[in-house]
Structure formats: structure tokens, C-alpha cells
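[Discussion] Sanity-checking designs against the backbone

I'm trying to build intuition for which residues belong where. Below is a C-alpha cell string of 116 positions. I'd appreciate it if someone posts a full sequence so I can compare it with mine line by line.
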């Protein structure tokens, strides 16, 4: 499971979502993006086919504060999501972990949280 997850994201920044030791991780949270062919793609139903055509073990993830705002989130809102473990064929492994991030204004920083 990821060892270093952000607890906050500023409204005008992006924050890396690091996978940790096991690389078959999906971050299912509003505002998540994945790097495909040098372009950051929003993790939406519209982009699901393109994302699932990739090897989940090699994808890079981040959380985009601007994208969170586009989804209607405001400063102070807690954005909830889950971490889902998958195999190399995108089959879920029945292991999920809830996590949340608070959208903050541009004057506050990020405090990492360490998983148990």
C-alpha cells in the first residue's frame, strides 16, 4: 500500500500520488489524473477505456487541485476516495483502502501522512 499520501492539495497545484512497494494501485478519487504518453489524463468514465488500455503497474498518478474545483469542490472540502489494488489485467484484488485529501487555498502547504 502507498506509504506517503498527501492530506492536502492546494486549489492551484498538483500533488503526486505515490504507489509504494506494490505498483498495481488505482487512486479512485475526484481530481485524480494519470500520465499516458506524456499527457496527464483525468480519471473519468470518458477516459476509462484509454486508461485501461495501459499497464496499471507503470502508470503515474497525481491529484489536481484545479480539477477538484472543476468538480465543484471548494476550499476546506474533504475529497474522499479509495485506493484499489489490481493485477496486471485490471482485475480488482478485493483490497481497498479509503483515504481523503482536503482542498486548501494557495497559502497553505501539504502535510504527508504515512500509512500504517
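Best answer:
Here's mine. Compare freely.
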Amino acid at each position: 500500500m502507498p506509504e506517503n499520501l498527501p492530506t492536502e492539495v492546494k486549489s492551484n497545484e498538483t500533488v503526486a500520488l505515490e504507489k509504494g512497494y506494490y505498483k498495481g494501485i488505482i487512486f479512485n478519487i475526484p481530481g485524480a489524473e494519470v500520465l499516458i504518453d506524456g499527457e496527464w489524463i483525468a480519471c473519468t468514465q470518458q477516459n476509462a477505456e484509454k486508461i485501461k488500455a495501459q499497464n496499471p503497474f507503470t502508470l503515474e498518478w497525481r491529484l489536481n487541485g484545479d480539477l477538484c474545483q472543476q468538480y465543484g469542490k471548494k476550499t476546506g472540502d474533504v475529497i474522499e476516495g479509495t485506493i484499489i489494488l489490481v493485477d496486471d489485467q485490471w482485475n480488482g484484488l478485493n483490497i481497498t483502502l479509503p483515504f481523503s485529501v482536503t482542498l486548501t487555498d494557495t497559502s497553505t502547504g501539504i502535510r504527508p501522512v504515512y500509512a500504517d
